[in-house]
Amino acid sequence: xxxxxxxxxxxxxxxxxxxxxxxxxxxxxxxxxxxxxxxxxxxxxxxxxxxxxxxxxxxxxxxxxxxxxxxxxxxxxxxxxxxxxxxxxxxxxxxxxxxxxxxxxxxxxxxxxxxxxxxxxxxxxxxxxxxxxxxxxx
Length: 138
What we know:
- The protein has 3 helices and 8 strands, in the order ββββαββββαα.
- It is α+β, with helices and mostly antiparallel strands.
- A hairpin with a 6-residue loop joins strand 2 (about 15-25) and strand 3 (about 30).
- The model has no long low-confidence stretch (mean pLDDT about 95).
């Protein structure tokens, strides 16, 4: 199954590049906002939509796909579905306090290398560790 994900980031004077991770609703582990492809949207547009629904992000897709990662999604019936996620960079303009999954997830900013250590998926960890917007990897 294919999904699309948003690597949401900001650049601050004090800390430089930071990426936004959210907790998953079921296990509470750190992930990027992601979800199923949408027939009326491109994968990049769907990633932007997921970023809003899961993290309250308003912003813009800021480049081409960064890479792919895979994971096993546990479905409602407890079956396991292998998923491949296309990751798109999203430049965050603002974070809304009201969004569809508010109260269901925690969201937190991390430096990319620290974020890489927080996620469980090795391929996502590599994408995060290498992320440097403005240098061709975003």
